Amino acid sequence: MSDRAFASLTPANALARLAFSDVYDALTSRRQADGAQAALRRMLVEPEQTCDDEIVRFRREMERTKHDTDGEASETLTEPDTDTEKQLQELGMVWVGCYLLVLQSPPAEPERGWAAGKGPLENMPIDLLLCTRSFAKSHDINLRNPHARFNFFPESKGFYIIGCSRSPSAQLTVNGDAAMRRPYHLNQHSMNILLDKLEYHFQWEEFAAEDDFKKERGRYVARALGRPANIDVEMPTPLPNKRTMGSWTLGDALGAGGHGRVFFASDQSANVAAIKVVERTSQNCHSVDKEIETLREVTNFVQKSDDGERILRMAEVIYSNSKEFSSKTAFDNVAIVLKPMTPQTFGDLVGTRSKGGCKGMTIEAATAFRDALLGVKVMHDGRWLHRDLKLTNIGLIVNPLRSVLLDVGTSRHIQAGGSLRPEPGTVGTIGYLAPELELDDYDHSIDIWSMGIILFELTYNYHPWKFSINPWRDGKDNEKLRPSFENSYQNTIDKMARDYKSACASPARGYIHLGGLFIEMVRYQWAVNNHAQRPDIDEVLQHPAWGSLLPESPQAKRRRLEYGLEDGEV
Ligand SMILES: Nc1ncnc2c1ncn2[C@@H]1O[C@H](COP(=O)(O)OP(=O)(O)OP(=O)(O)O)[C@@H](O)[C@H]1O
Question: Which parts pass through the membrane (predicted)?
Answer without folding.
Answer: none
